[in-house]
C-alpha cells in the first residue's frame, strides 16, 4: 500500500525578478553621463566626449547629453562638432532660447579663430551664421563687416551698412562707419555728408570730428593750389584743383564763388551762374567755429557772389551780342540790371542790344538812364549823339523837319565833332526856311571836312553870287569856326581828363576783357578772398573820378556864347554810310562805376 501524499505540504517555488531593459539602458546612460561630468570637472575632455557619446548611443533623445558633449568639444576647440551637437539640441527642444544663443556664440568663436589665422572668407561664413542666429547683437555683425573689409570688398561693406541703417534706424555710429567706408572708396562728397549727419545727431562724436578735420585740411590744400594756378593764368588746372576741394567739402560758399569766377573767365557762363547761385544759397548755412562765430564773412561772400553774378550775366550777354543773338542779350542784361540797378555800363550794353534790333526808343531810354548814373561818361555821350541822329533821320524822312532839327541839335550837343550831324541839321533848317542857321551848319561842315562836296550846292544857294572862298573867309565863317573849335576842344579836354584820372576803358577784345576782369577783382592774391570788399573799392574809385572831373571843369575858361556847355569826345570823321554803325562798338562791362 502506497503511502498517502499530502499535497498541502508541497513546497512553493519563488519567482525570479523580471529584467527591465529600458531601465537598464537608462541607468547605464546615466552612469556614462555622470562619468562624463566628473571627467569634465577634472579637465579630461576626451574622456568626457567618449562618455557622453556612449550615453547618447544609449539614449539619443536626451538633450542634455548633446549639450554636455558640445561643451566638451568646445573645450577641445572642435567648433564644428560642438555646433552639430547644439543643432541636435535645438531640434529636440526648439523652444529653448539658450541653445540658439550658445550656437551663435560657437560660430562667433570659430569665426574669430579663422579671422586670426587670416582665413577671412571662412571667418565671414561663421560670423554670418552667428549674426543670423542672433541678428540684434551688433558685435557679430561688425565682425562680418571686418571680414569684408579685410577682403577688400568695400562695396559689400557699404551695402551691409545701408541695410543696417534701414532696419535699425539712423545713428551717429552707423553714419560715421559709412563715412569711413566712403572715404576708403574715395567718395569724399558722400563721406562729408555722412559726417555732417553723424555730427548733427552726436555733436561731440570724436571719430566724426577727426575725419571731418582731415577732409577740411585736404580741401584747403586743394583750394590754395587752385588759387596759385589761377594767379598763373592756368585756369583749367585751377578748375581741377577747386573741384577736388569741393569733393572734400561740398557745401562751402567760398569754393562755389571761386569756381564760378573761373567758369566766367573760361566763358562757361551757364556753369558760372549755377555756381554763383549756390554760393549765395550756402552763404546762409556756413559752418560755425568752436567759439560759435561764423568761419567766413557771409555778408561779404554774398555781396561778392551777387557782383560776380552780374558780371557773368553781362559777359554772357556780350557773347550773345557778338553772335548776333540780340534778344537773348537783352534777356541776360535784364537779369543783371535786376540785381544791380546803379551800373551805367549795363544800361549802355542793353541800349546797344536794343539799337541792333532797331528798337530806337528803348535804346534811347537806356542811354538816358546810363547818363543819369554817370554824367561824365563820354561813351554815353557818343551813343546819345548817334541815337538822336538816327531818330532825326527818321523824322526827316517823315517830313517832320522841326523835330528832325531838334534831334540833330541834341546829337551835336553830345558830340560836336561829327560832320554828318551838321550836314543833316543844315538840310533840316533849309527845309524850315531858317537860312542863317542852315548857312552856319553848312560852314561848320566845310570847317570840319573841307573836301565835303555834299553841302557846297546848299551853301552856294543860300549865298547866291558869292564864291566858296569868299564865304569861308568872311567874318561869319570865322566866328562859326571859332565857336566850333571851342566846342571840340572842350570835348577833347573832357576825354583826356577821363584818361588822366585813370578811368578804366571798357575792353573791346578778349585780352582786354581778361585784364578788366582781373582789375575788377581788385587784383587780389586770391580771387575769392572774402576780406576784400570789391564793391566799396569801385565806389571809392568813382568818387575820386568825379572829384577829379569837377576840378577840371571848374578850371575851364568861360565860353562867351549862349549854347550848351557840355564838352564831349574827339572829332570822329566818318563816311556818311557808316555813321549809324561805327560809334556803336560793343564794349565789355569792366565794373561798377567804371566806364570809357
UniProtKB/TrEMBL annotation:
Q: Which InterPro entries match?
A: TPR-like_helical_dom_sf, TPR_2, TPR_rpt
**TPR repeat boundaries?**
29-62, 63-96, 104-137, 385-418
Q: Where is this region: Disordered?
A: 508-528, 560-579
Give start-end positions of Low complexity composition bias.
512-521
- Say which domain of life the source belongs to: Eukaryota
Q: Which UniProt keywords apply?
A: Repeat, TPR repeat
Please give one Pfam family short name. TPR_8
Return the protein name: Tetratricopeptide repeat domain 16
Gene source species: Danio rerio (Zebrafish)
Gene symbol here is LOC103911146
